Amino acid sequence: MHVHGSCHCGHIRYEAHVDPQRAAVCHCTDCQRLTGTAFRVSVPAQPGSFRLLAGEPAVYVKVGDSGSRRAQAFCRDCGSPLYTYDADHPTTYGLRVGCLDERQTIVPQRQKWFRSALGWTQEMAGLVRAEGE
Q1: CA-CA distance, 49 to 45, in Å (whole number)?
Q2: What residue ranges define each of the domains in the chain, with the CATH number in brackets?
Q3: Number of other residues whose CB lies within 10 A of the CB of residue 61
Q4: Which band of pLDDT confidence, cut at 50, 70 and 90, is reported for residue 128?
Q5: pLDDT the model gives residue 85
Q6: Contact (Cβ atoms closer than 8 angstroms) between residue 27 and residue 114
Q7: Model pTM above 0.85
Q8: Taking a C-beta distance cutoff of 8 angstroms, is the pair 132, 37 a contact?
Q9: 6 with 56: CB under 8 angstroms?
Q10: Which of 16, 49, 117, 122 is the most buried (most CB within 10 A)?
């Protein structure tokens, strides 16, 4: 599937090919802190398909418990988290589903780091719903 992504302000734009069946929710504490919320939804770009079309993202490199260095790309203007990649070998990009134009059609197929999941994330169906603010 061909996807198109951008930050909130539109300064940074990119495209890639993804397999929607590989989309996942990550509940790790790093994703919680890096997003400022309970989890992150990502889908990997197929190798060699990621292409930056406009802008130059800022990059924060996070060193994992394993010692691997993960680059976190985000817009320096609006702060949107865009994608991640191995800082030492940038060959595969993890795209943040919320930044994709096609986000409605990419449904996560699995949850990772579930031991860190906030309990309430599994009980959202019972929350009061509003169509707007």
Answers
A1: 7
A2: 2-120 (2.170.150.70)
A3: 10
A4: confident
A5: 93
A6: yes
A7: yes
A8: no
A9: no
A10: 16
- Quick: pLDDT tens for 20-47: 999 999 999 888 888 999 999 999 999 9
Cα 17 from chain centroid (whole Å):
15
> For residue 79, which of 45, 35, 26 has the smallest C-alpha distance?
35
| Tokens of residue 27, six digits | 């509940």
DSSP class per residue in the chain: -EEEEE-TTSS-EEEEEB-GGG-EEE--HHHHHHHTSS-EEEEEBPTT--EEEE---EEEEEE-TTS-EEEEEE-TTT--EEEEEESSS---EEEEGGGBTTGGG----EEESGGG--GGGG-GGGS---S--
